[in-house]
Amino acid sequence: MKLVTFRADLHLHTCLSPCADNEMMPKAIVNEARRKGLDIIGICDHNSTRNVAAVRRACGDGEVAVIGGVEVCSEEEVHILALFDEEESLHQMQQLIDVNLHGENNPEYFGEQLLCNECDDIIGFEDRMLIGATELTVEEIVENIHRFGGLAIASHVDREAFSLIGQLGFVPDGLEIDACEISTLHSITESRDSIPQISNYPIVRSSDAHRLEDIGRVSIAFTGTSPCAEELSRALHGENGREVVL
Ligand SMILES: [Zn+2]
Ligand SMILES: [Zn+2]
């Protein structure tokens, strides 16, 4: 078994997120990721998986692999990243979000929510208010991500807004998150010093890019046999010599 090192930015938004630039389209994202030397990108729009397939198709058989995901907002307004290898799992996650997310988007106030194809053509607009909170608790989100076979990562724990620490002040006992993500704002040492509790979890860093130039601003490298969420999970657990390099 030969282990390969993959450079990954696991948390990118597309033009489907109202707060992301409209230029965050599938082909443009893939080209920028390639330019930055990334092997893997994670596509995690707010409360929606509906642009993942287009980014996957934009990659084709190219050198960048896509891990499909979503950044779910809990009822406590905590952001949790969900990453999946299987199309069916993304679909199940989307169905769960759809019945727990209410309200209609106001594009003038929050921004447009563009659905695209792999050629960067706009094929529709999402009407749901993706920026809102779902009616799912943090525990329910994490539990269901695992039920659907995915990885649950607490988003930007070092940020005040929309993070586990910022909203709740702590990581709830028994919450089985697979990793804590540190944003571009702080170093890992700074974050471990200010939030000692995160030392109990594997750490990842990702850009949370909403603009093309931010893609790959921070990233991780991990070793594994293939560029997928399952191998990332094994690396987070240090299985069979695999590791995450920050
Ligand atoms: Zn977030
Ligand atoms: Zn985000």
Describe the structure.
- With 246 residues, the protein is α/β, with parallel strands linked by helices.
- The chain has one domain (4-245): Alpha-Beta Barrel (TIM Barrel).
- Helices cover 26% and strands 23% of the residues.
- The strands form 2 sheets. It has a 9-stranded mixed β-sheet with strand order 9-8-7-4-3-2-1-10-11, sandwiched between helices. Strands 5-6 form a two-stranded antiparallel ribbon.
- Strand 2 (40-46), helix 2 and strand 3 (65-73) form a beta-alpha-beta unit.
- Helix 1 (26-35) packs across helix 2.
- The longest helix has 12 residues, at 87-98.
- It starts with a strand and ends with a strand.
- The chain binds zinc ion (2 copies).
- One zinc ion binds next to loops.
Please supply descriptive tags for the structure shown above.
246 residues, alpha/beta, TIM Barrel, two-stranded antiparallel sheet, binds zinc ion
Low-pLDDT runs of 5+ residues are none
CATH uppermost class: Alpha Beta
- Fraction of residues in β-strands: 15-25%
CATH superfamily: Metal-dependent hydrolases
User: Which small-molecule species are bound to the chains here?
Assistant: zinc ion
Q: What's the helix-strand series? A: EHEHEEHHEEHEHEHEEHE
Q: How many structural domains does the protein architecture include?
A: 1
Main sheet: strand order:
9-8-7-4-3-2-1-10-11
How would you sum up the major sheet?
9 strands, mixed
Please state the structural category. alpha/beta
The percent of residues in helical segments reads 25-40%
Radius of gyration (Å): 17 Å
